[in-house]
């Protein structure tokens, strides 16, 4: 292994601290949850996840938003799915959230506080689901 200079070590430490900060949930009241079940991954959820993170970085929102992953949300027919939970807005599940739509999600929902109407899908209400 090649030896690193002090400046290279400092740069590596700063890079790793930045990566850890993105994962820190403290002080972040907005959640973006990407469905990463088998169906979601097959539909491109990993690329969507990465595109959302990149859009958040572009709009300097990594300090306000935590991006997490979850299993299947039960909406396999509209994968990839993304749920957004933020104060003063109802939780929303978006479907067909390809990496091409990630920028729109960040700008419309997280920055402008409006909805992406053409991508809204949701779980059925409990009162209409028969057990």
At a glance:
With 131 residues, this protein is α+β, with helices and mostly antiparallel strands.
Which structural traits does this protein have?
131 residues, alpha+beta, Glutaredoxin, five-stranded mixed sheet
Please tell me about this protein's structure.
The chain has 131 residues and is α+β, with helices and mostly antiparallel strands. It has one domain: Glutaredoxin (3-Layer(aba) Sandwich), CATH 3.40.30. Helix content is 37%, strand content 16%. It contains four helices and five strands; from the N terminus they run αβααβββαβ. It has a five-stranded mixed sheet, covered by helices on one side. A hairpin with a 6-residue loop joins β3 and β4. α3 crosses α4. The longest helix is centred in the N-terminal third of the chain and has 18 residues. The N and C termini lie far apart (60 Å).
- For the record, the CATH class is Alpha Beta
Q: Which shape, going by the Cα principal axes?
A: globular
Count of alpha/pi helices: 4
By helix and strand content, what is the structural category?
alpha+beta
Proportion of residues in β-strands: 15-25%
> What's the total count of β strands?
5
Second rung of CATH, namely the architecture: 3-Layer(aba) Sandwich
Number of domains: 1
CATH fold group: Glutaredoxin
Element-level helix/strand string: HEHHEEEHE
Show unreliable segments: none
Placed side by side, the strands forming the largest sheet appear as 2-1-3-4-5
Please state the average pLDDT score.
86
Report the span from N to C terminus. 60 Å
